[in-house]
Structure formats: C-alpha cells, structure tokens
Design a protein that fits this description.
Blueprint (H helix, E strand, L loop, with lengths): L2 E3 L2 H7 L9 H11 L1 E3 L5 E3 L11 E3 L13 E4 L10 H4 L12 E8 L4 E9 L12 E3 L1 H8 L3 H8 L2 H11 L6 H52 L1
Parallel strand pairs: 1-8
Antiparallel strand pairs: 2-3, 3-7, 4-5, 5-6, 6-7, 7-8
Helix pairs in contact: 2-5
Length: about 230
Amino acid sequence: MVRTLYNLSDLRETRFGQPSPRHGLSLLWWFAHNCVQIDSNSRMTALYNPEYGAFGFDLFYNRERLLPYSNRPYYEVGNLNNPGSLPHYVTKKYTGYSDDSNKDRIIVSFNSRWNRFEKIYVTQHSDEVHFDQNHTYRISPKLLEDIQELNLKKFLRKTINNSYQISYQMHCTPCPSPAPSVKTESNQRQGSKSVKGVCAESCEVLFCIIIIIIIIIFLFMLFISFSKMKI
C-alpha cells in the first residue's frame, strides 16, 4: 500500500529527492507551482495536459504494479534524459551519467475528461529500469497547497533532512590545504637563511676586529723597536 504524505514533515521524513545531486525536491516544487491548481474541494486541475508531452511528460504503463490499478492513464515526468522545457533549477545538477542525478520522478493519474489529476505520486529508481516500491509516496492536495505557499529556497530548507546535512558536512568538509605547511617550511627556510646571514655578518665583523687588533699590535711593536734603535 502506498503511503500518503500530508505535510512537509511527512515529506522530509521520507528523504525523497535527497541528497544532492538528486532533483526530486526541486521537481516537486516546480510541479506544485506550475502544473496544478487546487480548489476548495481539493480537486487538482491540470494547468498542462500531460498527454501532449509538455515538460517531458510521458506515458507510464505501471507494468510492475508500482501504483494501484486505475482506469485512468498514468504519466511520469522528471526524466532528465528527456527534460522537455523543465527549468534550469530542476536540471542544473544533472550529470548525464547513470547516477542519482536522474533518479526521481513524479507520476500522475490524469482524467482527461475533466482535465484533472486524480492522484499524484513521487517515486525513485531502484536501478536504471525499475522503480522502488518502498520509496513511492502519494502527495496529498494539502501538501501541494503547503508547497505552493513557499518559495523554492524556503521549501528546500523545510524539507531537506538534517541528518543528510550533517553527513554532508562531515564527509565534505575540505581537508586542510597543504599550502600553509609549504608556506611554513618556506618561512622556516627564510628564517634559517636570515640566521645564517646574521652569523655571517657577525663573523665578518669579528674577523675585521681581529685584523685591526693584529695591525695595532704590530704597529705598537714596530714603534717600540724603532724607539730602542734610536736610543
């Protein structure tokens, strides 16, 4: 049985669309703001007909019974291999490789007669072909209304699970740059050179003093010798 999500806390608890580079949360915010209008009776009117393939909507056949049987067709959106005209904030982290950046989807049950979404689901791939039954959820009209009241930044802040943020910070904190140690070694070498320079200058001064003393002694002795010879 597919669980229904009624509020932002329910959505945050599922960890749908997390962590980056997954695009599910941005995709869901885009859908709530651009594809559906909810009236006072919780009827979800489609602003775009998914049958026409706008934004990359494509028929979903539900062959593996991921979702309950319905006499209405299912359509999926969010495949970034076929992004249609999805906005940049949804597609910007797509790598083009078989990784988590193209993992998330929205699936809708569509009533073409009344131009309404009967049911809306979020899900994720378990591999390149299959979807994950254990991570498939129905989105309630109330949750969509809550999302419509928020801008994208606030919505992400309220739905990103803190455990992912902590894990991301622990694993992604930059390692100390080797530059300071290199700089320190350079400073040490410069300091060593300075000390050596001071020593060399001191030795030169001392050598000059010794030479001067020797010259003075030599002159003094020469003077005494000269004086004796004169006497």
